Amino acid sequence: MTRSEQATVHKVALASSAGTAIELYDFLVYGLASAVALNKLFFPAGDPLVGTLLAFATFGVGFLVRPLGAAVIGHFGDRVGRKPMLVLTLTATGVCTTAIGLLPSYQQVGLLAPLLLVLLRLVQGFFLGGEQSGAALMVVEHSPEQHRAWYGSWTFLGSPLGLFLGNALMLLSTAVSGPAFLDWGWRIPFLFSIVLIGVGLYLRLGVSESPEFQRLREQSRPQRLPIAEVLRSSWLRVLLGAGVNLGFNTFIFVLVNFMLTYGTAALHLPQQAVLNAGLVGGVAQVVSILVFSRLADRFGRLPVMLGGGIFLVVFGFPLFWLVDTGSVGLLTLAVAIGYFGSGAIFGPMAAYFAELFDTRVRYTGAAISYQLGSVFGGGVSPLVATALLAVDHGRSWPISVYLVLAALVSVGCLLALGETRRPEPARD
Fold this sequence. Notes:
single chain; MFS_trans_sf; 81% helix; cell membrane; Growth Hormone, Chain: A; mainly alpha; transport; symporter activity
């Protein structure tokens, strides 16, 4: 790879990472706010648990439309190009986040408040359905084959970076607003999204279209109806790929969103301490994504991701054993270990999903597969985990069982799909 080609790959990888960080910031800020503010402002109820369940339900609503967004945006990504779709998804999701920060509360306008909130979540989820997979494809399709996992992982670095930004802005708004957090402080992280949109657009508008897509367009006409081809020839890969993502998403969103509610409401830990643990975890995942993506390029996707899936199975119970001590230090340790270990399955995932599908239908296939796993994993996991607290009078073991079962799905699907990296050509 020449210096010019390397510079191009670095630019595309940085733009994808920054864009994904902004998109995940938008989505995760809502999840954090659901646990501490939106449940009180938009879903007032006599039982605080009911308000939290309703807030997490709207969090899940944003996931329900993701597969539809993946199909529609993936269709145009495979026909028109990757770049225009990524500019569109970045702008739309950021605008929705900013608009949530401007919404009136239930006390001000009654039922109109939660209705507007749900509508914005639906629109946001639709566009996010085509974001992360498309960003990953742009990097992978610009990268040399022997470094696809490494450069592809830069896209997913946006997730912990977005988490870091979300936690940091929530901490800042809590500190700045103090007792007035529920009056106006909660709005700060949402409104800040407008600044991030400008940064993301600046980076994304400066990158070139995917070379693999350009070659496809020069050599033949793009697939007329990509989703039909995907459902005809690759439906099993779509479902198995969704299963791979299901276990990871279940674990990570319990760690990201549910843990804030559980730590503050059930264990009575300071909100700031739980948010700080998330910051430490975000840093740990950045390191692990880089480490494990390197290993995936060297040894293959399957052994590294399978190790990550087995970690999720094994750590489901120890995670809550540590957290349930009520110690801030052990909570931080548990969250950091969780983020680091999950990076083994997350880091190589960009290359893995891209390699599952042919270039002609890659955007559509990868996006739908990835987002189906997100719906049945991350979309429902905070809601399910909150409901499971009632199974045994607030004890955490049912949530651990839930995490283990979801992780076993990922392990089984990885074994069924096998390796996706092409063997290196023999050298004379």
